[in-house]
Amino acid sequence: MAPEALHELGAVEALRRFRARELSPVELLTAVLDRIDAVDQHGGADAVNAVVQTLDRSRDAAAAAERRYADGGDLAPLGEGETALLGLPVATKEKHGIAGEPLSQGIYALRDEVAAADHPVIERISAAGGIVHARTSSPEFSCATVTHSKLWGVTRNPWNRELSPGGSSGGAGAALAAGYAPLATASDIAGSTRIPAAFCGVVGYKAPYGRIPGLPPLAADWYRGDGPMGRSVADTALLTNVLTGIHPVDHGTVPGEGRIPVEFPDAAAWLAGKRIALVARPGDYPVHPDVERAVREAAAQLAAAGAVVEEVELPWSTASVRDITMGHFGNILGPAMAQVTDGLPDLADYTQRFIADTAAAAGRMSLVETLAGEARMQAELAGAMAGYDVLLAPVNAVDGLRADGSYLEGVDAVSAAGVGVHLEHYWEGHITVPFNVNNRCPVLSVPVGFAGNGLPVGMQIVGHPYAEESVFRAGAALEAIRPWPLLAP
């Protein structure tokens, strides 16, 4: 492969080439760092602005990995053990702290804060031989579905610079789509992994609650979870295996059903006889026609390949979901944000609004009342999925968001009939937070097409509680029969 194309390599393919001594970790790291410099930091009007820091130490780590491959020492099987990520560059969300490095979470007034220790996901990447070479942007406190802040400026979507990569892991999604890394870390409390994965045309995974360790005390919030992003299903599975498992710092972590495959030979054969539920338009969500079309086309291809695909209904209203989930945030995340930011100047408008909106919601609905609403939503999803292996749904109801928008007054959507609909809160423009309420269910976001504005469209593949392999099998099957572009042009 020509040197100028090395940034296009996927993680699993790069590992194979390292092992065959056809590629050096130093060569790959150099290629992605050069790509960041050219497109992200010196791209002028076309700058994506997804990377907030590159780490010089990554060059020494790549050289050490190069020596290990050259020495021909013992290596664990591909994707396993302490060599699972050996020599691979990994971009990490800035909130995943690295000891001795800045940890601001995008808040200008906290720009001089430094992490005291590595976040658990950083620990696990390093223990598997991965090289954290770049850190990516997010909105303040990861509380918006767009990615801009006073500290880091506006992060733009590589597919259309006028539009947002989504949020809150917008920098991670944009970095993958632009070729800055083969793997990235993200987090998800209401869709923050899946939303940018969908808008950027990459793969994002919301693992079941407890499968990937976080940091207390907010790790105890059962909506949340840290996780992986990649440009393919196999690459995302690779990083998932590294990140999952019980960790002593997070008492919510749980064992899983086993290692997820990172190779899917004859992937489409898995579909034969599988029963798949389709919810192209959940409840009263006004799904954009371009989004619904792409999801239906993907479902039709799965059916043509041997699956039994049947449409089901979920009786979720955007208003009800908003009230329940904002009430939840108003009892946990909102007060935590208010405590951390108390007295800080120059907070983003969306941060101030989120704290105020969640406080108001908590005043209308107690935590016990939100639990009752969550139980109802969980029963409704279980009923819809009964007798099916996985369920399909759009990630986003809207086809895109402005890169510099804050959407304080809500978001304008378009129904399947082409009728304009105004949604009171921007979170209603995304069909993700219901699956944080159902947070024992694994959810994989995969690309399924494009909207008229040039942005990719993403589809959620939802599994039964802790049935993680099923969503990766379904995603690999779709990838095999409906390949997607790995990079933005």
UniProtKB/TrEMBL annotation:
Residue ranges of domain Amidase in the record: 27-471
A GO term, aspect molecular function: catalytic activity
PANTHER family in the cross-refs: GLUTAMYL-TRNA(GLN) AMIDOTRANSFERASE SUBUNIT A, MITOCHONDRIAL, TRANSAMIDASE
Family recorded in the similarity comment: Belongs to the amidase family.
Official protein name in the record: Amidase
Protein species of origin: Leucobacter chromiisoli
Lineage, broadest ranks: Bacteria, Bacillati, Actinomycetota, Actinomycetes, Micrococcales
